[in-house]
## 1
Amino acid sequence: MLADVLGAGDALRVPGSVRARYEAIDGQVRPGFEAESDLVNLRTTVFAEYDFGGLRVGGELYDSRAYGGDMRTPISTNEVNTAELVQAYVAADWSAPFGAGTHASVQAGRFLMNLGSRRLVAADDYRNTTNSYTGVRADLTARDGVKATAFYVLPQVRLPDDLPSVLDNRTRTDRESDDLVLFGGLVSKANAFAGLMVEGTYVRLEEQDAPGRPTRNRSLDTYGARLIRDPKPGALDGEVEVLRQTGSIRSGLGPSDRMLDVSAEFVHADVGYSFRSAWAPHVVAEFDYASGDDGAASYGRFDTLFGMRRADFAPAGLYNAVSRSNLVSPGLRLEVTPNRRWDAFVSGRLMWLASDLDSFATTGVRDPLGRSGDDAGGQIDARVRWWVVPDRLRFEADGVWLSKGSFLR
């Protein structure tokens, strides 16, 4: 190991990864792109952190590239961000600052961040690129399972973001500025009652136009409450999360476009059961609701901010059709783990529009007159993973089938 060669022992960590993924799509649902396309995604990461004993210094390089696309391929900075230092931070840790069983830490600089359910703020791992943030974060672990997080960050804008540069895998340093600010906090308590963890979240997004980069001037407050019971063999588990979003947004990108009040909601609920049997089957019934805009005086489309997609819905990349916007979707999921090297799941869900006047999820498909109905169809999503060499090399295969409803045909 590099740490042993340098004589740093356990104080230095230098993990890395290389991921190669081939994806193909037939019957693209998003307008403006070719019906059939394929893409090769490559991602290389190198992370390094040195622990001086209560003080840590770390950094991480991401090199995300894509090959095989053209001007009609759905490719963007979600796939390409080359030679980018997504982490460069200093962090301080304190053990027992408020007595036994407590811990505190502060991190400053550029870093990755996952909060709570990751539905609002996440460092997306399935996607070829990740979300990075510059600012400060503080975490506190108190007694009796209470944890708290507060943060003030400037989300990174991945560059370059023009299509020719993305197709050529060009390199340009990402930027942050006070034109896009994210701050808030989270408090949770494990085993609050009946074996449930209770969590409360507040996230504020402030956005304004930057030179050469018009925006919708989002000013969003998102309040959340969450209950969760983790899976255990022979027991019921479940999760309920409710998010309420208010604030304001501009009706378009023009500086003279009028401002609209925001009133949007998101709900996720699931209940599952883990069987005590071979393959450890876990069966889950789940439901997601994300409001859409119905053309009323207030803007009703829910904004998932920097949230993840894969764990709840389906892969990003060429498909990238289903997300937490204008969606009503019940579903069933089966997860199995035959052994420590294999795991798999298959899920099926039905999908409707919450508002038939708004575009469905992230498809970009919209009927402004509302004459196409609200049936988006059904989706089957499956994945299998195998550790070819335990903890060193893993194979993964994913497949999604979308049966288009009347709205998407």
## 2
Amino acid sequence: MTLIVVIAAGLIIGGFFRVVVGVSAIVLPSTLRTLNTAGGIIAIVLGIAALLDLQAANSFLITLLALAILLVGAFEIGVGVARHPPTWLRALIISIGALTVVLAGLVIIDPSAGETLLASVLALALLFMGFRNIVHGITGHHPVSTPIDSRVTAA
């Protein structure tokens, strides 16, 4: 909860600075002044809303983290599908990516589960990705033996 309070305070303080810049910076074009003022007001409102309902802010941050990890898992699957020898490493990358997607999906489907369970699931997904990175670092990155078609690289 401390992190949420710090983020909310940062939003409020940063929002006030944006409003002050938007109101007082007469050297800026009017569109930038308007954007600064509007962005500041939005930041202040979001900061106050986070302070008023810490649990909702916490659930939102957990869901946002789960979405980010879901995307990372999807990219892991894409990396595994690419032609990287050896085959066992490709299989490991794909399986860790799929497991990461499943774990993040569980968090997204049921964000009301206990915070300890959610933190454990997300930590496990990050642990698997770290393990994959270590294995990939130990085995090294080998160039693709099959040449890439020129139609793919033509811009």
## 3
Amino acid sequence: MTVAFALNLLQEPLAGAGGGGPNIWLMIRVSDLVTKIILAVLLVFSVIAWAIIIRKLRAFRRLKRQRDQFFHVFERRETLADAYQATLSLPDNPFSEVFKAGVRELRHLTQPAEPPSRSPGLADIDERGSTATATMPRVAAVSLLEKELIAMALEREGGRQVEEFERHLPFLATTGSVSPFFGLLGTVWGIMDAFVNLGVRGGGNINVVAPGVAAALVATAAGLAVAIPAVIAYNYFLSEVKVLSDDMRNFSTELINVIVRDYRLR
């Protein structure tokens, strides 16, 4: 980078800004190869991070809508079988998947206690909501062991659903952690290059070293610009995942209580 050109670009205003700020794009163009590579890495991190942020925002917005729909249907149930059949018409969501997992485990564990009645119950309903020819017993009961097995099935499925929403969050954490250091590396390298040029050209004029230092500081600014949104998004999504995990745990507890009430505890 020539000193005259660097000084000139530092005096150029940002396009359309109408002020006296430096032209960042020109500073990037005249920076050394190492700084450009670091800026390219930061750009890749930024693109991926923003893709994850947008995707997660949509996913959590959809989750809130589906959660409200599910509980609106579930809480209006008269029996567990009615609630199950009603929720099958809803779009797939984490809560319906946990519900299905609990029903599958209940179906597997519950044994007929007397000849079946003619009224279809929970065991007659498949995952498409249709009723089978066979019917479940009118009275069924679950033991303490079976209750624990159902609770474990709910916990397993709930954990899988939470993991689905945790996916890609570590990348945001990594981006928020390492991006400032990448930027700092670019700045340190650029300052070193500026002082090398100062030694080669000789003299102690600030005009010789200032342009290189200013261009190098772009890397630090870029690192912070990448890291700040990633950290904010990571913390926000982490809080949303915690809310989902708590909701899953509360729903599992409520479902266990409903099963105990409807099928009795022996």
## 4
Amino acid sequence: MFLLIVFLEEMCMQTLVKKHLFLLVLFMGLLVCPVDTWASQKSLLALFNLRPLSLNALGYDGEILYSLISALDKQNTVRLMPRREMEKQLFRGELSQSDNLNTIIKAGKLLGVDFVLAGQVDKRGSRIVVSFKMVDIARRNIAKTWDESFASRSDIITGGGRIADVIVQTIQGASETGTQYVSEKKRVKISSFTAIHKGKGVALRWVFDPSDPISQFYVYRSEHPRGPFQWIGASKKNNFVDTKVRRNANYYYKLGIILHNGQTIECKSLAKIHDVGQKLPHPPVVVTQTGHVQRIRIKCIPSMLNSREKFKIKEYRLYRQEPETQEWEVRQQFPTTRYSQQELAFYLEDVGLADATAYTYIVRSVSHKGKESPPSEEIVVTTLPRPRLDVSRENMLRQVELHWAALPDIKGYYLYRRHGTRDWEKIVRLRPDTNTYLDEDDLEDGLNYTYAMTAYDARSETDKSDPVTAATKPVPEPPMGLEAKSNQVQSVPLVWEPIQDEDVGGYVVYRGQDRIDLEEIVRLKGHRTCRYVDKGSYLHPLKDGTRYFYTVAALNTYKAIGPPAMAVQATTKHLPKTPRHVTIVMQQGQVLLSWESNPETDIQNYRIMRSKNGGGYSRLQEVDADTTFFTDKELSPDTTYTYQVIAIDEDDLASLPGNSDSVHTAPKPE
């Protein structure tokens, strides 16, 4: 409202009052006139080259546009103007692919497109940052501005679809609403508005983006910070000299911004100056400025003009501009008593700053009478960023490999780690020339660990980096294909599929006569091991005809055991059955022994045992498996004999003996 009243007042003072009134009516009419709706056909879009802001950004512009073109071709919702045709027409029209709004609008009209996408690309640390500007040619305004950030070249390849989605949504929104997406009022920004002494006048300077849709600036002045402000002139550049001033007066200045579409914006920034026309000391010469860990350092040299003009400087003041208010705040007062005349330079510092943040400073000299010099040139210094930590390799055996981009002018890094909800633990201090680290300290199997990193110098430490998470390798999976072979003599052969992983250190074999209650019986080395024959131990061999359960688990090289395979069972070979119906007949001084044939198919022979007079049994004879009788002719008179028959199989397993009745031979004749 303030600028509108001043604007009307100014027009009334001009000679072409009717012309101004016509323009005002036209301007007000534009605010209420409806805008034509978009045609239903696909909008035609031209893609301009992205302007690299630094040498490090060269090459990324082409990759980003290639990814975007590929994504738009897949979506098939926007018509793209062929680049060769676009470049040919721009060359004929003596126009360039600029990111300046006026140039874009001229080029867009020449090309006959509906929209133009332009922008800038920069490399900030390890990230590629792109500022896009989408211009609506028909409405002569900016439809949308936005930023995209990419971590790597592979991220650019996958990010084309995201950019394409924004473009399509912007075009569709313009078609549906008939209004521009981003208000020019909100987008235009003025910074670094200052007033300095210049001869007998006051020089005003400010910074703005030349691509913004700004027609000119109106300059207003007051002798009080709250006004009233009067219009004193206009400028199409970023400077203005106020020559109609009073000596020793204090002035306050404001800017009004006039856009191409006639809109007027009141700039909130206020520039002030005191004691106009007085002779003032000179600011120091700024030599270098460096950003450090949460602090900045500015190297200055005293101005020789102060000694020539008899100014006695008592201190230097470092001012920092607050982004919100654009006001200048004193950050350091450096008395000249601290400055050694033997040293050519002195240093100013500002501490307690945020990481990766650009700060704007000026330096002033202060005389012994308290007079401040005009400000030095504005100094923009950026503090060092936090480290950008990434995972190089994970899912390793109790190891995690990390990497980061090295930072300059630091003393080293601190690496922090935590697991779950535990507090951060500082695990290592690293040298400044390192950019990789292999963590293998007290890690456990199959856990997720979160890492963060800080950089430090002699004075401070950055905030922690964005956390990254990495997992260690879990314990080995159960071996597959476990089998146990039955019907073996006091033994059970086991086989399984070996795990093809060198982090597997071997296998653990478990046995029991109950599927649930299994005990470890042996540990085998090597991940290629795939068989084992269980024979029990010397003192505790396996029993004949007994069922056993087995399982196998793999263990890693740290001897951590994984889950077991599903249990299998096997039964050792049974003993042959006891021969049945063992009978004896005494006939003609001989004993005829007979028995039934065993049912087993692998009986090798039968062993005949004999006992005399109730004594122990001794081996008498072995007969073939097909034989079921035996005749004992070697008898003694008056002797009691008892016989046993034992079946022997092909594995030399002996059955329990089949016992006969006793027989007594006749006494020896007298």
